[in-house]
Amino acid sequence: MPLNAAPVPTFVTVLLRGLLAGLVAGLLAGTFAFVAGEPHVEAAIAIEEAAAHADPAAGGHHHEDALVSRNGQRGGLFPATGLFGAAMGGLLATAYVLLCRRRRAYDDGRSGLLLAGAALLGVVIVPFVKYPANPPAVGDPATIDQRTGTYLLMVALGLVAVWAGSLGYRSVGGAAPQWLRATAAVGGFLLVTVVAYVVLPSFQEVPDDFPATLLWNFRLASLGTQVVLWAGIGLLFAALMNNDGRRRAATATPST
Amino acid sequence: MSSSTSSQPLAHPANTVRLMWTTLAAVAVLSLLVYLVAFDQGAVSRSGMYLHELMHDGRHLLGVPCH
């Protein structure tokens, strides 16, 4: 039994890998957002400015005398997605350690990929369907606190929905056919998701004259940004954990 | 759970309490980072709306309610 054949990664090691994977994935997502999303943000701001000029009392968000110039905001996209990605990578690594510590330590990175997929579903896709991303000029500044609160609640419920799905999968024993376990998983997930969608309030704050194609394109770019982020976190984190596992397996094999 | 002996669990039971505190600390720090990037409106960062303005495009494109 090769005890101490190779150092078992500590929590801090796993955390640093998660942070690194998240930072790189965040910068990739920022690049995607810059190319695919920035033109739509610019177009939406032009509409917002036009509305503010037409009715100065209504404009709550003045870009002309802003603290940060538009170029600064465009550049700020990269620190925003990079830091957000690093934080998400760190949280994924923490979840990985807490959920996988009782299992065998190395599983060729599959747990990392599975966790990132679960996070994409629970933290991004489930909340997005209820509260899709809004470009500038969409959304009433008076309801920002309420919208932020319900959005965070929706993120938490998205995670609960994914957890309910995995609970459904595991509650049907391993002897049961795969389709039955998958059905239980989908059932558990949908139960929580549908209840959350029905119970939480909706906000219809898109101005009547806001172009529908611009809204659609912006939301697609926003969703794409998050997909790039989580795909990047999952793949990079799994690669870092897998590399470690192979090195460990190579040193452990001769002594068994 | 398989009784595989060729691999060790990531954390030994003796380390569980320490692991709990380090993970708790990590979650707290990372949550603060998420808050500053995605949700701060000047109240915590004491930077006025500077952080909000700098992260403006990122917030919109990450799908977080911005304003």
Q: How does this structure look, described?
A:
By secondary structure, chain A is an all-alpha fold. Chain A has two domains: 1-137 and 210-256, no CATH class; 139-205. Helix content of chain A is 73%, strand content 0%. Chain A contains seven helices and no strands. Chain A has helices at 11-36, 38-54, 70-100, 110-130, 144-171, 178-199, 212-252. Chain A is globular and about 70 Å long. The model of chain A is unreliable at 1-5 (pLDDT under 50). The relative contact order of chain B is 0.09. Residues 1-8 of chain B have low confidence and may be disordered. The longest helix of chain B is centred in the middle third of the chain and has 23 residues, at 16-38. Chain B has 67 residues and is mainly alpha-helical. Chain B is built from three helices and no strands. Chain B has a domain at 35-67. At the A-B interface, helix 1, helix 3, helix 4, helix 5 and helix 7 of A face helix 1, helix 2 and helix 3 of B.
Cα(first) to Cα(last) distance of chain A is 6 Å
Oligomeric state of the chains present here: heterodimer
Number of helices of chain A: 7
- State the shape of chain A: globular
Order of helices and strands of chain A: HHHHHHH
Relative strand content of chain A: under 5%
* Gyration radius of chain A, in Å: 22 Å
Query: Which class of secondary structure composition applies to the elements of chain B?
Result: mainly alpha
Element order of chain B: H for helix, E for strand: HHH
Distance between the termini of chain B: 48 Å
